[in-house]
């Protein structure tokens, strides 16, 4: 069960402005590599800007305070944003969280086509995503 930093997600009301800011000021590139296909009919229908530094993506997602209610999940990763790691074995990671006593929300593929996602809180209330592709 290997984890690798995949993206940081910032929630915003200004997707286009924020995307342009990060492209212009931090010289990040728009990316078409490994871009998730959003499942806009399953719970999150917002817009997302995608930029990256060549290794790690920055997702600039339209804030949606109701996404948790729409998907029936306790953890809503679209209120404040989150940090995301990719794993090669989500089942093993879920078992690890359960052994550690860490509750999580299993979004399955409610937001992104082909990604199975879980979300949980760190001790300070920051949201962490772990997902597996395929």
UniProtKB/TrEMBL annotation:
Keyword set includes tRNA-binding: no
A GO MF label: dioxygenase activity
Record domain VOC: where: 4-133
InterPro entries xrefs: Glyas_Bleomycin-R_OHBP_Dase, Glyas_Fos-R_dOase_dom, GlyoxalaseI/FosfomycinResist, VOC_core
Keyword Zinc-finger: no
UniProt cross-references to Pfam families, sorted A to Z: Glyoxalase
UniProt keyword annotations, A-Z: Dioxygenase, Oxidoreductase
Name of this chain's protein: Glyoxalase/bleomycin resistance protein/dioxygenase
Organism: Salipiger mucosus DSM 16094
Organism classification: Bacteria, Pseudomonadati, Pseudomonadota, Alphaproteobacteria, Rhodobacterales
């Amino acid at each position: 069960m290997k984890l690798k930093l995949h993206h940081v997600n910032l929630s915003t009301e200004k997707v286009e402005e924020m995307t342009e800011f990060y492209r212009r000021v931090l010289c990040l590139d728009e990316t078409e590599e490994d871009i998730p296909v959003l499942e806009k009919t399953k719970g999150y229908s917002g817009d997302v800007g995608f930029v990256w530094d060549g290794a790690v993506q920055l997702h600039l997602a339209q804030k949606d305070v109701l996404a948790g209610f729409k998907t029936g999940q306790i953890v809503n990763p679209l209120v404040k944003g989150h940090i995301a790691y990719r794993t090669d074995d989500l089942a093993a990671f879920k078992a690890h969280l359960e052994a550690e006593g860490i509750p999580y929300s299993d979004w399955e593929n409610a937001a992104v086509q082909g990604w199975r996602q879980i979300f949980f809180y760190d001790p300070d209330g920051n949201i962490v995503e772990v997902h597996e592709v395929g």
